[in-house]
Amino acid sequence: MSLALFRWSVVLLLCLFTSAAVAGEVRTRKNKAKAPRLVSLPGGHQLHRDTATAYQRMAQDAAKHGIVLTVTSGYRSPHEQRWLYEQYRQGSGNKAARPGQSKHQLGIAVDLIVGKRTSKRYRWLKANACRFGFRRTVRSEPWHWEYHPRSTFPPVAGFDCLGRKTRPPEPPTPVATQDPS
């Protein structure tokens, strides 16, 4: 093999290895999930910032109706989700999604104290949560609510999230005017 051919072979191999390494690095960067931007709530739980904002608006509206919303679980780290899943698999924990499959790991799922399905709190959530972008996504877990604002639509004016008619807003009180004569 001539020296010129050898040099071109080495250059070609270096180019191939370099481009493969760069492509692998790019793929690795794209596959790594970005950590959610978390906000702490009173009580120490965290949610994605958009979820937290919507949750706080929902909790304030619930309070106007005498309903107190309490978070029992928000964001979960991959380590925490793995531990919960292992507990579930061993039969010593509640149902838990596989690590990487839980919306808690994105900070968009929130578990709330709801009581029974007939409780005032649960009924309020069913009737109003969609107005804030929340919906139940796990049929067997009435406490589990997820924030999906792009696909959870608010009700039509005059109706609640269950399609029931709501009371119309009270008309404004007329202001007395003085007769200029």
UniProtKB/TrEMBL annotation:
It comes from the Bacteria. Residues 160-181 are annotated as: Disordered. InterPro entries: DD-CPase-like (IPR052179), VanY-like_core_dom (IPR003709), Zn_M74/Hedgehog-like (IPR009045). GO terms for biological process: proteolysis. GO terms for molecular function: carboxypeptidase activity. SUPFAM superfamilies: Hedgehog/DD-peptidase. CDD domains: Peptidase_M15. Residues 1-23 form the signal peptide. Keywords: Carboxypeptidase, Hydrolase, Protease, Signal. Residues 45-149 form the D-alanyl-D-alanine carboxypeptidase-like core domain. This is D-alanyl-D-alanine carboxypeptidase. It comes from Myxococcus stipitatus (strain DSM 14675 / JCM 12634 / Mx s8). The lineage of its organism: Bacteria, Pseudomonadati, Myxococcota, Myxococcia, Myxococcales.
